Amino acid sequence: MSHSYCSNLLFALRLCYPHLGNSSCRRIMYSHSVSVLLHIILSSISVLTVTLNLLVIISISHFKKLHTPTNFLLLSLAVSDFSVGFVIVFLIFLIDGCWFLGADWCVFYVALSLVSTAASVGTVVLISVDRYVAVCDPMHYQTKVTANRAKICIVLCWLCSTVFHTVMLKDNIEHPGGFDSCAGGCTIYLPPLAGVIDLIFSFIIPISVIVILYVRVFMVAVSQARAMRSHVTAVTLQSSQKVNRSELKAARALGVVVVVFLIFLTPSFIVTLLAGFAAMSVSTFFAVLCLYYFNSLLNPVIYAFMYPWFRKCVKCVLSLQILKSGSSEANILEHLLTCFF
């Protein structure tokens, strides 16, 4: 009798909704220490991701001197990373494989994840194009890349991402929870064709464009560096113009962002692709998902190391100097003082 009771109790503990019996989804059982560690790690990543990217958003939005095409692209990337910070909150609820927030929130969680991911990929492509024009065609950069054009491209990037994934999730939006095989699940149905299209337009094409453009930028940067070492004052490139040193420095800084982005993005798409040919464990999906989301935390950290203006902005935001009258007009790029008042 005692053995039967223990077996039933153990079975109940493995269910998301014990009172529903076999109609309930099963939990992923972790040891207490592993469960606590996962919650601490994901919670920390979520809080830091939201906080650091919020600092980027406030800095670029507030200081008018930072309203450049390149910084608008960084702002878009920060918004997508900021959204990922909230996605991680939802991911915490799925650590044990049980979803208790309802079908509507499940669809919202997946939609926010897909839209923000696609928008970040699109923004990185735009950053690559921006650096390509700045380094490889510097004479026409000011006319080709303007603040208004950057804004239009960013809006189109987010709009296309939202529309495409709304269409892709159409069945789930119309019938939330309709594809769950058990209570406590968060199952999303994606048409096979939509998955292929998403792979092509969210990974294969963008990654190809990013790699091709940055290889070209790297080649020009190397040529410029050699010329500087040789004390050559004018270097003939494809554009027949000398590349501005600040543009090269920005290209290197953003190059770090792009490389880190590719390193963290690629595994998730590889696993997604392989899932169509072989069964993948939940832990594998969970691991690559966390790896990709961790990239959203790294971006503002990279800015802190690469951009003195960002460090200065953070000091001014945290010290509440931005609340002073006229602070938005301050020349944050000049002299890089501790603060502007």
UniProtKB/TrEMBL annotation:
Signal peptide: none annotated. It is found in: Cell membrane. The chain crosses the membrane at residues 36-60, 72-95, 107-129, 150-169, 199-222, 253-279, 285-305. It comes from the Eukaryota. Its main location: membrane. Keywords: Cell membrane, Disulfide bond, G-protein coupled receptor, Glycoprotein, Membrane, Receptor, Transducer, Transmembrane, Transmembrane helix. One of its GO terms (cellular component) is plasma membrane. One of its GO terms (molecular function) is trace-amine receptor activity. Residues 52-303 form the G-protein coupled receptors family 1 profile domain. SMART domains: 7TM_GPCR_Srsx (SM01381). It is a multi-pass membrane protein. It holds the Pfam family 7tm_1. InterPro entries: GPCR_Rhodpsn, GPCR_Rhodpsn_7TM, TAAR, TAAR_fam. The keyword Transferase does not apply. Belongs to the G-protein coupled receptor 1 family. This is Trace amine-associated receptor 6-like. It comes from Gouania willdenowi. The gene is LOC114474918.
